[in-house]
Design brief:
By secondary structure, the chain is an alpha+beta fold. Helix content is 41%, strand content 17%. Strands 2-1-3-4 form a 4-stranded mixed beta sheet, with helices on both faces. Helix 4 runs antiparallel to helix 5. The longest helix has 17 residues. The termini are far apart.
């Protein structure tokens, strides 16, 4: 496997990138739902990067070892281990922004349980930020639109 930056994926491979981040169960649910539309991800050059945040308690960790079948799909890429801290720092800033917009502290806390999704178009522009398991059909439609 090769390590490349999101910028390289956008500029050289003309690849759209969707980062799905949160607790392991949210990330796995998102990947399982993505399988239904897997062929469309490949046709539209969409790469999904699942990022299970390591700061969550061990009780949320995977049962067993290795990657799931959903993580082995050709449209799924892992954040490079050497750069996980950078990815988590970026996602942490996104969570902080979302929490700042929450109605109250309870809603802010719930955001962490919900997870976050960042959609980066092949132009490098962030076209969608969302919470929870993504509505893949909407994301695919957004990425299909011309700028």
């Amino acid at each position: 496997s090769r390590q490349v930056t999101v910028g390289t994926l956008n500029a050289e491979a003309r690849q759209n990138v969707v980062v799905v981040s949160g607790k392991r169960q949210m990330v796995q649910d998102a990947l399982l739902k993505a399988q239904i539309m897997g062929e469309r991800f490949q046709k539209q050059n969409i790469l999904v990067v699942p990022l299970t945040l390591t700061r969550f308690p061990a009780g949320d960790a995977a049962k067993g070892f290795g990657r799931t079948k959903a993580e082995e799909k050709p449209y799924v890429a892992q954040a490079p281990e050497g750069l996980r801290g950078d990815w988590e720092e970026y996602i942490e800033a996104e969570f902080a922004d979302a929490e700042g917009q929450a109605m109250d502290e309870e809603a802010a806390t719930a955001l962490r349980d919900t997870g976050i999704v960042i959609v980066v178009k092949k132009t490098g522009k962030i076209v969608r930020r969302g919470l929870g398991v993504p509505a893949w059909d909407m994301i695919i439609a957004d990425l299909a639109k011309e700028d």
